[in-house]
Automatic annotation (TrEMBL):
Gene3D superfamilies named among the record's database cross-references: alpha/beta hydrolase, TolB, C-terminal domain
Keyword Protease applies: yes
Protein known as: S9 family peptidase
Record lineage: Bacteria, Pseudomonadati, Bacteroidota, Cytophagia, Cytophagales
Keywords recorded for this protein, A-Z: Hydrolase, Protease, Serine protease, Signal
InterPro entries per record: 6-blade_b-propeller_TolB-like (IPR011042), AB_hydrolase_fold (IPR029058), Peptidase_S9_cat (IPR001375), WD40 (IPR011659)
Organism: Larkinella humicola
SUPFAM superfamilies hit by this protein: alpha/beta-Hydrolases, DPP6 N-terminal domain-like
Signal peptide positions on this chain: 1-20
A molecular function GO annotation: serine-type endopeptidase activity
Length: 752
C-alpha cells in the first residue's frame, strides 16, 4: 500500500465538523431548483458599475412538474445588496456588453427561435431590437468608437450556397465534400429543370432522392464529424462575423465569407481591424483540419485579411489585445494528442506579430483579460499606462484568479484553491467576480487585487455584493477535508472526504453510528473536482444529507495539475486511475464512522467507464451506478462524437493490430464476465457524445450472464444529464442513484 499523506488545511478554511448546525435543514433533492448561477460579469467603462447574468430554474407555466432555465441580466453599483434586474419576462437575456460611453448595453435574446441582439439604454429607456438576421446573432461586442457592434452568426452549407453576401459569385467549396463517385462538388448544384421521378432517368432519380433529403425522409452522410450532441448532422455549418451600425433598421454587413468558420473575434483598439481564429488550411475539409490560425480582418467589410500566426500542427485561440494595441496574449497548443492550452504572449504592431513567447504556466488558462496595473499613470499625449493580464485556471480543486506581468512573464496567483472564480471583470484596482465555494454555490463579489497572493488571497477580504443563494445559510452542510496520496508514478493525487451532514449537527453520534461511503468520480477524463468546482455542489451535499459519506479524487489524467499529470493516463484509462481513486476510497474507509461493508461507487461519462472497470476488477462495493459511460473503446470509435479520444489517448485506430490490442486491454467490456457487483446503468436516449450502444452492450451481456443489473434510458436526454439538461430528469437521476444504493446499503437493507 502506498504511503498516504494527510494535508492539514491552511488559513482555517476547513470548518470543524463538531460545529453544531442545530435547527438547520438538510439539503433536499429539489434544492437543485433553488440554485442561482451568476455569470457573464462585465464592468462599466468608468469602473463604477457592473452587469452580470443570473441563471435560475423556474417552474414551467405550461407543463406540470416541468421546469425551465431562465437567464436575465442584473446591474450593480458595486455595493452590497444593490443588484437589480435589468431584464425580466419569459424570454431569457444573456451575453451583455457595455457601450464605450457606458450609456447602453447590448445583449442577446431569442426571437422566433433565433438569437438576436438588443440594445438597452440605461437612462430608463426600453430595450430595442437591433438585428433581425435570419441566421440569428450572438456574442455582441461594441466597436471602440461605439458606432458598431460586432457579432457572430451560424449558417449552414446550403444557406451559404444561396447567400450572395456570404458567397459572392455563388461559388462552391474549394475543398472536396468527399462524395464517392464524384470528382468535383458540382453535384450540390442540382439542375432545377429536372423533375423528381422515381421511375425516370438517372437525373430524375437523383432529383427524387434529393427531395427525400429535403423532406427529411433520408439523411445522406459524407462528412467525418457527423454526430452532434443529440442527433446526426449530415450538413456542415459555419460561424461568420458581421458588424452592424447601432441604429434602428440598420443592415448588418458580413465581415467574413466562404466555407470555413471564424471564431473568438476581438476588436483592435483602433477599430480598423479585428483578430479572429480560423482554419489554417482553407483547402482542407473542415472536419479534417485541426490546425487553427490567428488572422487580422479589415473591419470595413472589404474582406481583406492577413495571417498573423500559422504553423502546421498548431492551434492558436482565445486572443486578447492590450488596450494600447501593442501586446497580444492568447493560448496555443499542438493540434493532436492530449494537450492543454499554453499561455503565450507576443508583440503586436498593427497587422504583424513578433516575439511570440510561451509563458511558463503549467495550467490551462482561460478568460484572458487585460487591465491597467494599479498605480500606473497615463501622461497627457503619451501612453505610459502599464497593463497586466488577468485570467482564471482550474487548479488543485479550485479555479483561482491569476495575474500575468507582460514584462517579466511572471504569473501571480491571486485567490485560493478552495473556491472557484467562474467569471470576472476588472474595475480599476478591483475585481468583480462570481465565486463558487462550499458555503455558497454562487454569488457576486468585489475585492482589491493589489497585494493579493496565495498567502493573502483576494477572496479572503472580498465584499459580497449579491444575495441570490442566501437560502443556503439555513441548510446544514458538509465541508470537505483535503488529503493527498503519492501514487506509483510518484505523482501527488489530491482527494477530499466529506462526512455525513448529520455528524456535524450531532457529533455525539459520530463515535457510535456507522455510515455508508460513496466513491464519486469525475469524467473527462480531464475534468477536475474540488471545493471550488460548481457542478457537483448540490450532488455532494445531497448525498451527505442522506447519510452517506462522500470521497472524490482527481486521479492521474485529471486537469488542473499540469500537462504531465494530465497525460499520465495515456494508454492507461483503467489500471492507473483505478489505483488513485481506490487509494482515496481505502483511506476514507479507515474513518471510524464508515461502515466498510456498505461502500458504493458511481461516475459519469469517462467515470462511467471507470465505474465499470473497477467493478470488473474489485469486489469491495455493494452496488455501483455507471452513467452515460464508454465500455468498449472500439465501438466508441464509431458511435461517439468524442471519438478523437481514441487516437489521442491510444495512439491510433482499431484496425491497427497493436492499437486494437491496447483498446481491448483498456475496455471494461473485455472483463464483463468478472462483474458481479449489482449495477445500475443509465444513458440519455439521444446521447451521441458517448453513444447508447455502449450501455446496451454492457446491460445485455450482464443480463445474459444472470448478473444483478438494471438499465435506465432517459427519453430525449443527451450527454448533459447532471450539469444541464431537463431538470426533472436531473432530479430523477439523483433519486435513482440514492434509491438503487439504498437497496443494498440502506440501514434496513430494504429491498421492497
Amino acid at each position: 500500500m502506498k504511503k498516504l499523506l494527510l494535508l492539514t488545511a491552511a488559513f482555517g478554511l476547513l470548518f470543524p465538523y463538531a460545529h453544531a448546525q442545530t435547527g438547520k435543514q438538510k439539503i433536499t433533492v429539489t434544492d437543485l431548483t433553488r440554485i442561482r448561477q451568476v455569470g457573464g460579469v462585465k464592468t462599466s467603462p468608468d469602473g463604477k458599475h457592473a452587469v452580470y447574468t443570473l441563471t435560475t430554474i423556474e417552474p414551467d407555466a405550461e407543463k406540470k412538474d416541468e421546469y425551465e432555465y431562465k437567464t436575465h441580466i442584473f446591474l450593480t453599483g458595486l455595493k452590497p445588496g444593490d443588484p437589480k434586474p435589468l431584464t425580466n419576462g419569459s424570454e431569457s437575456a444573456r451575453q451583455p456588453d457595455w457601450s464605450p460611453d457606458g450609456q447602453s448595453i447590448a445583449f442577446v435574446r431569442t426571437v422566433k427561435g433565433k438569437s438576436q441582439i438588443f440594445v438597452m439604454p440605461l437612462d430608463g429607456g426600453e430595450a430595442w431590437q437591433l438585428t433581425k438576421l435570419s441566421y440569428g446573432a450572438s456574442s455582441p461586442q461594441w466597436s471602440p468608437d461605439g458606432k458598431q457592434i460586432l457579432f457572430t452568426t451560424s449558417a449552414s452549407l446550403s444557406d451559404i450556397l444561396k447567400d450572395s453576401l456570404l458567397n459572392q459569385g455563388k461559388t462552391l467549396p474549394a475543398w472536396s465534400l468527399e462524395k464517392p463517385g464524384f470528382a468535383t462538388n458540382e453535384f450540390i448544384k442540382p439542375d432545377k429543370t429536372v423533375k423528381a421521378n422515381p421511375d425516370g432517368s438517372l437525373a430524375e432519380i437523383r432529383a427524387y432522392l434529393n427531395k427525400d433529403v429535403e423532406d427529411k425522409k433520408a439523411k445522406v452522410i459524407n462528412r467525418l464529424n457527423f454526430q452532434g450532441e443529440s442527433t446526426t448532422e449530415p450538413e456542415l455549418s459555419f460561424t461568420h462575423l458581421y458588424a452592424v451600425e447601432v441604429k434602428e433598421n440598420a443592415t448588418p454587413k458580413p465581415l467574413t465569407r466562404g466555407f470555413y468558420s471564424f471564431q473568438a473575434p476581438v476588436w483592435m483598439p483602433d477599430g480598423q481591424g479585428i483578430l479572429a481564429v480560423t482554419d489554417r488550411d482553407t483547402l482542407r475539409h473542415p472536419d479534417r483540419e485541426q490546425d487553427a490560425a490567428l488572422i487580422w480582418l479589415a473591419a470595413d467589410g472589404s474582406g481583406k485579411r492577413i495571417s498573423l500566426l500559422s504553423e502546421a500542427g498548431k492551434t492558436y485561440f482565445s486572443p486578447s489585445v492590450s488596450p494600447d494595441g501593442r501586446q497580444l496574449v492568447l493560448l496555443t497548443n499542438s493540434a493532436q494528442g492530449v494537450n492543454a492550452g499554453q499561455l503565450a504572449m507576443a508583440a503586436l504592431n498593427g497587422t504583424s506579430v513578433s516575439d511570440l513567447q510561451v509563458v511558463a504556466f503549467d495550467r490551462a488558462a482561460g478568460n484572458l483579460k487585460w487591465g491597467a496595473v494599479a498605480g500606473s499613470k497615463k501622461k497627457k499625449g503619451t501612453s505610459t499606462t502599464a497593463y497586466a493580464v488577468f485570467f482564471t485556471a482550474s487548479s488543485n480543486g479550485g479555479a483561482p484568479l491569476y495575474r500575468l506581468d507582460p514584462a517579466t512573464k511572471q504569473v501571480t496567483q491571486l485567490s485560493d484553491f478552495d473556491s472557484g472564480i467562474s467569471a470576472f471583470d476588472l474595475a480599476g484596482d478591483q475585481v468583480v467576480f462570481a465565486k463558487t465555494a462550499v458555503a455558497n454555490p454562487s454569488e457576486l463579489y468585489l475585492a482589491a487585487y493589489t497585494g493579493a497572493t496565495t498567502q493573502k488571497p483576494l477572496t479572503a477580504n472580498a465584499v459580497k455584493l449579491s444575495n441570490h443563494n442566501d437560502w443556503v445559510a439555513g441548510k446544514a452542510l458538509s465541508f470537505p477535508e483535503k488529503r493527498t496520496y503519492k501514487n506509483s508514478k510518484g505523482q501527488t493525487v489530491e482527494y477530499w472526504i466529506m462526512k455525513p451532514t448529520a455528524m456535524a449537527a450531532n457529533e455525539a453520534s459520530a463515535s457510535t453510528k456507522k455510515y455508508p461511503l460513496l466513491l464519486n468520480m469525475h469524467g473527462g477524463p480531464t475534468a477536475m473536482w474540488g471545493p471550488g468546482e460548481a457542478s457537483m455542489w448540490h450532488e455532494f451535499q445531497y448525498f451527505c444529507s442522506q447519510g452517506y459519506g462522500v470521497v472524490y479524487a482527481n486521479p492521474r489524467g485529471s486537469g488542473g495539475y499540469g500537462i504531465d499529470f494530465q497525460r499520465a493516463n495515456v494508454k492507461d484509462w483503467g489500471t492507473g486511475p483505478t489505483e488513485d481513486v481506490l487509494a482515496a476510497a481505502t483511506d476514507a474507509a479507515r474513518e471510524a464512522w464508515v461502515d466498510t461493508s456498505r461502500q458504493v461507487i458511481t461516475g459519469g461519462s469517462y467515470a462511467g467507464y471507470l465505474t465499470a472497470w473497477i467493478v470488473a476488477h474489485d469486489n469491495r462495493f455493494k452496488a455501483a451506478f455507471s452513467q452515460r459511460g464508454v465500455y468498449d473503446l472500439t465501438t466508441f470509435m464509431g458511435e461517439g462524437n468524442a471519438w478523437r479520444l481514441v487516437p489521442n489517448y491510444f495512439g491510433g485506430y482499431p484496425w491497427q493490430k497493436q492499437v486494437a490490442e491496447t483498446l481491448e486491454a483498456n475496455s471494461p467490456y473485455t472483463f464483463v464476465e468478472n462483474i458481479k457487483t449489482p449495477l445500475l446503468i443509465k444513458h440519455g436516449e439521444n446521447d451521441l457524445r458517448t453513444g447508447v450502444i455502449q450501455s446496451e452492450m454492457l446491460y445485455k451481456s450482464l443480463k445474459i450472464l444472470g448478473r444483478p443489473v438494471e438499465y435506465v434510458r432517459m427519453p430525449g436526454g443527451t450527454h448533459e444529464m447532471s450539469r444541464t439538461g431537463n431538470v426533472r430528469q436531473r432530479i430523477d437521476r439523483m433519486l435513482r442513484i440514492y434509491e438503487f444504493f439504498e437497496r443494498y446499503v440502506g440501514e434496513k437493507n430494504n429491498r421492497q
